[in-house]
Structure formats: structure tokens, C-alpha cells
Specification:
The protein is mainly α. The chain is built from four helices and no strands.
């Protein structure tokens, strides 16, 4: 598996795991059940650790590795690498928003 493809998959998985706070809210809206979100609360710490571990790995793969010669020029063109970086930064921003969002909402709702 090529580096760009692996990084894109990692960023997608990170975005999914980063949505551990938003996913229950979406499911609440779709199903209309109130108690469903409380089932994820005990696992929030694990999702947070997994999210930032995957983000760290993705940042290492994108920025930390030395460039190698590319076998497939379609995967190594600057446009593909730019898209991968954008997805990584958007995933990071979403993970941070989902992590601190509930605390900020609680603070401002008092």
C-alpha cells in the first residue's frame, strides 16, 4: 500500500474516531432515542487516545518521513499530497473541536 493511500485511510479513520462525540448526536437525531448517547460515555477516553494516536501516526507519515522515489507517479504528484495534507489538518481540527466542544458548551450554557 502506498504512503499517500495509507495516510488518506488513516486520516479517514481518525476523522471517524474523532467523531465519537458527534456520532451519537447524529444517531440521536436519526433514531430519536435519548439514552443511546450515554452508552458511549465510558469509552470516550479510549476513543480520544486512539484518535490522537492515529493523528500522530498520520502526521509522522505525512511530514516526518523522508521522501522516497515513487513507483506510481499518480500517487506522488503534488496535488494528491496537498489533498492528503488538507484531509489530515481538517481531521485534526475536527478531533479538537469534538474534544473541547462539550466543555465549552457547558461553560457558556451556565
Amino acid at each position: 500500500m502506498q504512503l499517500s493511500r495509507l495516510t488518506a485511510i488513516g486520516a479517514g479513520v481518525t476523522a471517524f474516531l474523532g467523531s465519537c462525540c458527534a456520532l451519537p448526536l447524529m444517531l440521536l437525531g436519526l433514531t430519536g432515542t435519548i439514552g443511546f448517547a450515554s452508552a458511549f460515555v465510558p469509552y470516550q477516553k479510549y476513543f480520544t487516545v486512539a484518535t490522537f494516536a492515529l493523528l500522530g501516526t498520520a502526521f509522522y507519515l505525512v511530514y516526518g518521513r523522508k521522501p522516497t522515489t515513487c513507483e506510481n507517479p499518480n500517487l506522488c504528484n503534488p496535488k494528491t499530497q496537498g489533498i492528503t495534507k488538507w484531509i489530515l489538518w481538517i481531521s485534526t481540527l475536527l478531533a479538537i473541536i469534538f474534544l473541547i466542544g462539550p466543555y465549552l458548551i457547558a461553560k457558556f450554557m451556565r
